[in-house]
Amino acid sequence: MEEPRDSTQMVKIEQAARILQAGDVVAMPTETVYGLAGDASRDDAVVKIFETKSRPRFNPLIVHCATIEMVETIAMFPPLARKLADKYWPGPLTMVLPKHVGAPLSDLVTAGLDTVAVRMPKHDMARTLIEKAGFPVAAPSANPSGKLSPTTAQHVLDGFDGRVPVLEGGPSVEGVESTIVAVQDDQLILLRPGTISRDDLAAATGRPVLDPEDKTIKAPGMLLSHYAPNATVRLNADECLDGEAALNFGNSKLRSKVATLNLSPSGDLAEAARHLFSCLRELDRPDIRTIAVAPISTAGLGEAINDRLRRAAADRS
Questions:
Q1: Hey, is 93 helix, strand or coil?
Q2: Within the chain, which residue ranges are assigned CATH 3.90.870.10?
């Protein structure tokens, strides 16, 4: 495990649990990306998450739980949701479920909605931290809002200039945020693609997975401009223009005089997902104004990769 360059804010699990119990925030590892965790029941803790990230408060947060029993204290569990939980939890799947009336949650977590986004992370250290804290934690990605998501402890330290304590848990093995699916009226609605694909969800349940008709923000990751480097991102490029950096996939042949990287030379989508944010981060240099990205398949996990790239490329004016 690579030692972070700034270890002054590195904490152990017991310290991290005490920080959460005191109503403060700590960055924790998950299998998807590092999350900025706070007590999901306390307004003051959730406000610290929003303030630390400079995140819009109309954007709901994912609540992370250590066990099914913990999930059941805050959300109702229809049979379709239980089927998905049996298949994919713990793991990179977030479900938007009806919130229990009187659930011990800050209204800021749900943005005033009558639903709550919940998941059980696969990362052992994350679940252990939540168990030691003794309550569900709200945990969006541990980065300034709209910027590239962190997949290492060093990314967190760099993003917040060492101001946030970090529980080191190694690099994230998935590399992109969890799939988010709303379970409502016996239907599945895909709100954000992730490593568990639309086809995976359909196969696990025997139900079609629909797109949302209502585009209002009901879950994290639905803002049009998101996951963005400082550089402009140009998609589906077949050549590099003067001064552009190149981000290839598979056997694509983009060439740049400035910098050239490949998400996966073998064309493996899982490898590309793991490398996506770290490659964008590496190319996000002061001397690079635009990153040209080669076409990437939209099949399976490719839907999630292209979703993050579209949001990275969205107009921020």
A1: strand
A2: 10-210
Q: What does DSSP assign to residue 75? A: B
Look up residue 61 and give its DSSP letter.
Answer: -
SS3 137: strand
Name the amino acid, one letter, at 242: D
- Is the bond leading into 79 cis (omega within 30 degrees of zero)? no
CA-closest candidate to residue 311, choices 219, 190, 223: 223
pLDDT in tens, 46-90: 999 999 998 767 678 999 999 999 999 999 999 999 999 999 999
> What is the residue type of 225?
S
Tell the residue number behind the tokens 């990205």, with chain if given.
293
Measured CA to CA, the distance from residue 106 to residue 110 in angstroms comes to 7
Question: What pLDDT does residue 1 have?
Answer: 47
Distance CA(150)–CA(161), nearest Å, equals 13
Confidence of residue 223 (pLDDT cuts 50, 70, 90): low
The Cα 41–Cα 38 span in angstroms is 9
What phi-psi label fits residue 235: left (phi over 0), alpha (psi between -120 and 50 degrees) or beta? Answer: beta
Q: What pLDDT is attached to residue 226?
A: 59
Q: Are 139 and 20 in contact (CB under 8 A)?
A: no
* pLDDT category of residue 314 using cuts at 50, 70 and 90: confident
Assign 141 to helix, strand or coil. strand
Q: Does domain 10-210 have CATH number 3.40.50.2000?
A: no
* Amino acid making up residue 136: P
Give residue 153's identity as a one-letter amino acid code: A
8 or 150, higher pLDDT: 150
**Distance in angstroms (rounded) separating the CA atoms of residues 208 and 198:** 9
